[in-house]
Write a structure and sequence with these properties.
Elements: E1 4-9, E2 12-17, H1 25-30, H2 32-47, H3 70-82, H4 87-93, H5 104-120, E3 122-128, H6 143-168, E4 184-189, E5 208-214, E6 218-220, E7 232-233, E8 249-256, E9 259-266, H7 270-274, E10 281-282, H8 285-288, E11 294-300, E12 310-315, E13 320-326, H9 334-351, E14 355-366, E15 372-377, H10 384-394, E16 399-406, E17 409-414, E18 420-424, E19 428-432, E20 449-451, E21 459-463, H11 467-470, E22 474-475, E23 478-483, E24 495-496, H12 501-510, H13 540-555, E25 559-564, H14 575-594
Parallel strand pairs: 2-3, 3-4, 6-20, 7-12, 9-11, 11-13, 15-23, 23-25
Antiparallel strand pairs: 1-2, 4-5, 8-9, 8-10, 12-13, 14-15, 14-16, 14-17, 17-18, 18-22, 19-21, 20-21, 24-25
Helix pairs in contact: 2-3, 5-6, 10-14, 12-13
C-alpha cells in the first residue's frame, strides 16, 4: 500500500514513501508537498515584503483555516496546468487564473525564485521497505530505491523546464543539471537485531538505514559550527526512563574499525547523521544484525543526560558502551556525532586491550623499497597532514602509492608474531576547508559533503580510503609524536628517538600541540596522546596499557620518536612541515638500506 508523508524542520524537508507514487510531472504537482512548499515560499516573501508578491494580483498570500492561502492554491493549480499549456490557453480554460497569467514575465520570475526556494531546502527521501535477506546480495532490493531518487529528480527538472518554457515562449539553450530532487535518500527497514533488554528496549523497533544515496554536492547549514562540550562518563545508564517515538527515529549501523556501533538519531538531525556514511562504512546485512559493540542515541529527550547533555556509560552487564546526546540546538554540529562515536570506539578498544591512537597512519610504497607504514600522533593542526603532503611531493618520483589507513583515529594491536599492527576507524575525514592540502583527497572532492561553507570553521566530510585498507592491519614501522610548538636546534632535532619505552611514553603523554584557532579550543592543548576522545586524563590503568604497547613497539624494532613540524610557530607554517618531510624521507631510506 502506498504511503506518502512529509515533515518540515525549518529549511529541512522529509518525504517518506513506501513506493514511488509520482510517475509524471503532473503527479508531482498534485502532491500535497507542492502546496506546502508554495505556502512556505509565500510566507517567506511576506516576511521580507518581497516585490515578487506583486505577481499575485489581488490573491491573498495569508494562510486560511486549512493552512493554505488562496494564492498558494491558485499557484499550485497553475503550475500543474503550465506543464502542458501556454498561459493564453490557461486563461481561457480556467478564468479564475486569468489574472495570474495576464503578464508572464513577473510570473516567470516568481516561479524561478520558487524553484530556487525548493532547492534551498535540505531535502530527504525516506524509502520504507520490508526486511529482505537478499538486499545486500541482489540488485532487486537496490533498483527501486535508486530509481525512486532518480525519478523524483527527473520529474522535478522536467516539470520546471516545461513550465518555464511555456511562460517564456522558448526552450533554454543551456541546461543546468542541478540537484532538484532529494539531497539525500535513505532506504530503511525494521530488522531483527539482538537488542539488549532493560532501557534499551526503547530502541528495538526503530528502523535501520540499509542503503543511502547522496545527490552531490550536498551542502548543509547546521546551527552550530564548533563542538564545545566534553563527553563525560556517568555511573548509571542514561537511557533509563527514556521513551521514544519509533516513527521519528532512525538507526545507522556503522562499522567503526572492527566494531559495530548502532547510531540512533532523531529525524530532525537527518542531514548530520546521514553524513556519517561519508565518514564510516555502513554495516552490511550480517553486521547490522549482530550485537553492537557500541550504541549512540543522538537527540534524546532532554533531562536524561545530566547537565552536560553529552555522556557515555560503560555497560558491563550488556557488554556495550552507550553514548547519549540530548536534543538541543547546541549540539547541532557534526563533530558531536563524530567525536562521540570515536569516544565509544576508544573506550571499547581499551576494554579489549587495544591502544587507541589519535592521529594519522599512511602506507607508502616506494620504488625499490619495501612498503613503510607511518603513524603520526597528534590532531589536525599539528602538522601531520601538511607533513604527509610535503612528503608526497618530495618523494613524487619514487612514490608508487600512498594509502590512508586512518586520518583521525585508529588503534594498535599486538600481533601473534610479536609485532604491532595499526587499524583505522573510518573511511572518510572530517576536515576544515582551510586545512585541505592540494594533494589530499582532492580526487574525491566531488564526493564531499560541505557544512557551513561561508562560516568560520567551515567543514567537509570526504571519503579518503577504503574499509579494506582500514582493516588490513599493517605493521607499524614509524610511530612518531607530532610536536608543532618547539623550535629546532642542536639539542632539539627535527626527528629524535627516546632511548627507552618509558621515556617515549612520557613524551606522548604530554601530547602538547598548538591549535590553529579552532573555535572553542585553547591555544595549547595538553592532552593524553593529544587525544580528545575518551577519558580526559592518563589514568594509571591506561598508562599501564600504553607502556605495554611501547615496550612491544621497541621490541619489534619500530622507530618510536618525536617529529618537530613547527606548524604552530609563526613563519614556519610551510617550512616546518617541509623540513619534517625531508627528515622523515631520509629516515625511511635509512631504514630501507638497513633492512
Amino acid at each position: 500500500m502506498t504511503e506518502y508523508r512529509t515533515a518540515h524542520f525549518g529549511y529541512r524537508l522529509t518525504i517518506r514513501l513506501t513506493e514511488m507514487t509520482c510517475q509524471t510531472p503532473q503527479d508531482v504537482m498534485r502532491s500535497p508537498l507542492v502546496l506546502s512548499v508554495v505556502q512556505r515560499f509565500l510566507d517567506h516573501l511576506v516576511k521580507h515584503d518581497s516585490p515578487l508578491l506583486e505577481a499575485l494580483g489581488s490573491l491573498t498570500p495569508f494562510p486560511g483555516p486549512d493552512g493554505a492561502s488562496a494564492a498558494a492554491i491558485a499557484i499550485t493549480d497553475l503550475l500543474r496546468l503550465l506543464i502542458d499549456h501556454r498561459p493564453a490557453l490557461i486563461a481561457q480554460m480556467v478564468p479564475r487564473l486569468s489574472t495570474l497569467v495576464a503578464t508572464t514575465q513577473p510570473l516567470a520570475d516568481f516561479i524561478d525564485r520558487l524553484y530556487d526556494f525548493w532547492r534551498d531546502y535540505e531535502r530527504y527521501l525516506i524509502y520504507e521497505a520490508t526486511a529482505d535477506d537478499s538486499r545486500d546480495r541482489a540488485v532487486e532490493g537496490h533498483v527501486p530505491f535508486v530509481r525512486a531518487n532518480d525519478q523524483l529528480k527527473a520529474l522535478v527538472l522536467e516539470a520546471y523546464r516545461r513550465i518555464d518554457s511555456h511562460l517564456r515562449g522558448v526552450w533554454p539553450r543551456v541546461y543546468h543539471q542541478v540537484p532538484a530532487g532529494a539531497s539525500m535518500g535513505l532506504l530503511v527497514e525494521r530488522i531483527p537485531w539482538p537488542c539488549p533488554d532493560g532501557p534499551y528496549t526503547a530502541l528495538r523497533d526503530i528502523p535501520f538505514v540499509r542503503l543511502a544515496l547522496l545527490e552531490l554536492p550536498v551542502v548543509l547549514y547546521p546551527r552550530r559550527n564548533a563542538c564545545l562540550r566534553r563527553f563525560t562518563p556517568v555511573p548509571t545508564n542514561p537511557l533509563t526512563g527514556v521513551t521514544l517515538d519509533v516513527n521519528a527515529w532512525f538507526c545507522l549501523p556503522l562499522k567503526v574499525g572492527p566494531l559495530v556501533i548502532h547510531t540512533f538519531f532523531y529525524e530532525e538531525y537527518l542531514g548530520l547523521a546521514t553524513s556519517l556514511v561519508n565518514l564510516f562504512e555502513l554495516a552490511d546485512h550480517a553486521d547490522a544484525r549482530r550485537a553492537p559493540d557500541g550504541i549512540l542515541v543522538f537527540g534524546a529527550p532532554p533531562q536524561h543526560a545530566g547537565a552536560t547533555q553529552t555522556v557515555y556509560f560503560e555497560d558491563e552487564e550488556h557488554d556495550v558502551v552507550l553514548g547519549v546526546i540530548e536534543r538541543s540546538d547546541a549540539v547541532e554540529y557534526f563533530g558531536y556525532l563524530q567525536k562521540m562515536i570515536l569516544t565509544l570506539h576508544n573506550v571499547a578498544m581499551m576494554r579489549r586491550k587495544r591502544l587507541p591512537v589519535h592521529g594519522a597512519m599512511y602506507r607508502l610504497e616506494l620504488r625499490n623499497h619495501p612498503a613503510v607504514h607511518i603513524v603520526l600522533v597528534g590532531g589536525h593542526g599539528a602538522g601531520a597532514a601538511e607533513t604527509f603532503e610535503a612528503l608526497r611531493i618530495l618523494a613524487h618520483d619514487e612514490l608508487r602509492a600512498m594509502t590512508v589507513i586512518f586520518d583521525e583515529m585508529g588503534s594498535l594491536a599486538c600481533t601473534a608474531e610479536g609485532g604491532v599492527a595499526g587499524y583505522g576507524t573510518g573511511t572518510g575525514a572530517f576536515l576544515r576547508l582551510d586545512e585541505m592540502q592540494p594533494g589530499f583527497a582532492f580526487g574525491q572532492i566531488d564526493r564531499c559533503i560541505l557544512m557551513n561553507p561561508l562560516k568560520a570553521n567551515a567543514r567537509l566530510v570526504i571519503p579518503v580510503t577504503t574499509y579494506d585498507a582500514v582493516m588490513a592491519g599493517y605493521p607499524v614501522d614509524f610511530f612518531l609524536a607530532v610536536n608543532n610548538v618547539e623550535s629546532v636546534d642542536a639539542e632539539h632535532p627535527i626527528l629524535d628517538y627516546p632511548p627507552t619505552p618509558a621515556r617515549a611514553l612520557s613524551i606522548f603523554n604530554k601530547g602538547v600541540q598548538k591549535a590553529t584557532a579552532l573555535p572553542g579550543e585553547s591555544d595549547l592543548l595538553p592532552t593524553c596522546f593529544a587525544n580528545p576522545y575518551g577519558p580526559s586524563a592518563c589514568t594509571s590503568s591506561n598508562n599501564a596499557l600504553a607502556l605495554e604497547y611501547f615496550e612491544a613497539l621497541f621490541t619489534a624494532g619500530v622507530h618510536v620518536g618525536q617529529l618537530r613540524t613547527r606548524q604552530g610557530i609563526a613563519g614556519s607554517e610551510q617550512e616546518g612541515p617541509e623540513a619534517a618531510a625531508h627528515a622523515l624521507l631520509a629516515a625511511i631510506h635509512a631504514r630501507g638500506n638497513s633492512a
